[in-house]
Amino acid sequence: MGKINVIETAIPQLLIVEPQVFGDRRGWFYESWSERDFAAAGLHYRFVQDNRSYSKERGTMRGIHFQKGEHAQAKLVRCDRGAVIDVAVDLRKGSPHYAQWVAAELTEENKRQFLIPRGFGHIFLTLTEDVEFCYKTDNFYNGEADRSIRYDDPDIGIAWERWDVQEPVLSEKDRTAPFLKDSDADFVY
């Protein structure tokens, strides 16, 4: 059983992972995580924490989030209910892709996952109501290392208009997050 299809993106470290889905008249089954299958694909991660969020409204945004320093996290993200646009931003100073971003559409239908290594910021936008979003991390959450960058930072330039975002639903933390140029992100390529 198992096996995954790994799809490269415009930033080589950001990967789309498609699990093999087995379906019949009863429904479907897939392995959302297999250390063996990921290792066979050259992806060596030890995930230590699972997180879930629920967003009631379409147009809800969460991010751009990251943890700095020794608390940085790689993430394997997916959407179990509804649909999202998931975006990763390269925050590694010296990277040829610094401040560039990649978007992936993750839905309950396509069952795709987005593998985001350490050194990247993460944000998602809900495209439907009642979204359940899940992700694994390879490091535990640390509140003192928790950081955000503004979703509309002009130096990053995420093209939110592609997804018809007028007024996103934001937390106060995300609404008042600093711009990248004012951030204390300390990742190095």
Instruction: Find the count of extended strands (DSSP E, 2+ residues).
Output: 13
Cα-to-Cα separation, first versus last residue: 36 Å
Mean of pLDDT? 96
CATH arch. level architecture: Sandwich
* The CATH top-level class label: Mainly Beta
Q: Which percent band covers the strand fraction?
A: 35-45%
Strand order of the largest sheet: 1-2-10-7-12-5
Question: How would you spell out the order of helices and strands?
Answer: EEEEHEEEEEEEEEH
The fourth-level CATH homologous superfamily is: Jelly Rolls
Main sheet properties? 6 strands, antiparallel
Output the number of helix runs.
Answer: 2
What structural category characterises the helix and strand content?
mainly beta
CATH topology: Jelly Rolls
General form:
globular
pLDDT < 50 runs, ≥5 residues: none
Helix content: under 10%
Total number of domains: 1
Radius of gyration from the CA trace? 16 Å
